[in-house]
Amino acid sequence: MILRPLYTRLDETVVEEIPFRAGDGTRLGLTRVGTGRGDRPAVLLLHGHTASSDMFLQPETRNLVDVLLDEGYEPWLLDWRGSCRLPYNETGRRYTYDDVALYDIPAAVAYIRQQIGDRPLFAVAHCIGALSLSMSMTAGLVPGLAGVVAQGVFLTPKLAARTSLKMTMAGELFRSRFDHIPVDFRKVGFWSRYTPLFALASKGASCPDPTCQILSNSAWCVGASLFVHENLSDATHERLAQLLGPAPLWILPHLRRVALARSVVRWNQGDDRYRALPENALDQAGRIDCPVLLVSGSENGMWLDSQKLCHEVLAARQPQLDVRYEEIPGYGHFDTFVGRGAALDVFGHILDFLDAHA
After folding, report:
1. Are residues 68 and 124 in the same domain?
2. pLDDT at 248
3. Does 3 fall in a domain?
4. pLDDT by residue (tens digit) across 291-325?
5. pTM over 0.90
6. Number of domains within the chain
7. 175 and 146 in one domain?
8. Can you give the residue range of the structural domain that contains 107?
């Protein structure tokens, strides 16, 4: 299996692509970006579902990896099994977020620890990467992290009512015909079976680009928005189909269960292989053993105010935890990492948190 190459301008001498498998043997992608110095705190970067490590490395802006390197950190990038860099991402190979929490993230943390020794290890996670990480943490599978930054969502997922409804409808209406909802109209063509989906996504859209419509205006036809359009550079806008891949429809039942519970809940209830994971991660939040920074854009059209809710719930239920909440004015969801001004508006909050706990 060959991963799609990273779209990066970094010197190849500092990028190490590591042959890596999850705890269940699934081939993943793990990349270390180093400088030859062995005294830097490490930061594991976790992308969202259908995205990839490219979201932290985009060359058209000052990206998060650039900033971390300049500020004395060693980035490690995990392409977990929901990455669009992995060739099996569009084949219908099925999994749930339980697999990510149980097999992908703990294996990556264990491997990095073997390489860095007793240096501090942080995690910065986006969207479903953060949601899955919350399950790993409350299961006690990644103990001893120096700190976690969770963007967009963490322990208390909250979707708009219309998004939940459309997610249910899409799952029931489309799953018999499609495995995935594509995002690149140039690949599927005008006369494909996906054309009605793109037409639906275009309703009320201000941007003429079909890929932007199905992401920004509709979030894979569930009626949400993944970013504030004005925050993207032209180059990033042009590469949306590379930054975000097709969305698998077979994952929707787990996502619906999570959204209805307003908590990260285990999907595989009757399978002994997953007994290490809590049935409800929020009920086990007391097992979190490191500081947490919850980040969200004020205009998050996907997860709404999930992070604010999470901060309030944890403050009430687990006041002993070190949890902060930072809201970024004028930002949505995905643009908190890929927006053209993210280095100025967002990354400083992440660095302040890392520096305080390194």
Report:
1. yes
2. 87
3. no
4. 999 999 999 999 999 999 999 999 999 999 999 99
5. yes
6. 2
7. no
8. 12-157+265-357
